[in-house]
Specification:
Elements: E1 13-16, H1 19-30, E2 33-39, E3 46-53, E4 56-62, E5 73-77, H2 81-90, E6 94-102, E7 105-111, E8 117-122
Parallel strand pairs: 1-4, 5-8
Antiparallel strand pairs: 2-3, 3-4, 6-7, 7-8
């Protein structure tokens, strides 16, 4: 089996309202990098984008009348859960679960302004 460079066997694919704003959000909170982005004919909405976060790939597209918004629950390891959690709150996220120590690391749950729930975790 061959997988294109920068891809994994399984990757989340989100369909979002305000996809451009979502990209800005994940760049700010998770230091994400856009590796690929194609716009639709309107040159505004995103037909397909690939975003890299610390070696992981997230794919997304803008919603359309025949392609409805589809959000997700996402688990993400970050270098410093405290810092990422603060960035997320500052970026308008709703707290689902306060930052706390668990057996598997320091973790928190937040819901982003686009409807996705993120479980932010760092191993310490």
């Amino acid at each position: 089996m061959q997988i294109p460079f920068g891809h994994q066997v399984i990757m989340p694919y989100l369909i979002l309202d305000n996809a451009d704003l979502f990209v800005n959000f994940i760049q700010e909170v998770f230091n994400a990098e856009v590796s690929f982005c194609i716009r639709r004919e309107d040159e505004i909405s995103i037909r397909h984008a690939e975003i890299h976060i610390n070696g992981g790939t997230l794919m997304l597209a803008s919603s359309m009348p025949d392609l409805k918004k589809e959000t997700a629950y996402l688990f993400i390891y970050v270098p410093d859960a405290n810092t990422t959690y603060k960035k997320a709150i500052d970026a308008g996220c709703e707290i689902i679960r306060e930052l706390q120590k668990e057996d598997y690391g320091l973790t928190a749950g937040i819901k982003d302004p686009f409807g996705n729930v993120w479980w932010i975790t760092s191993v310490n």
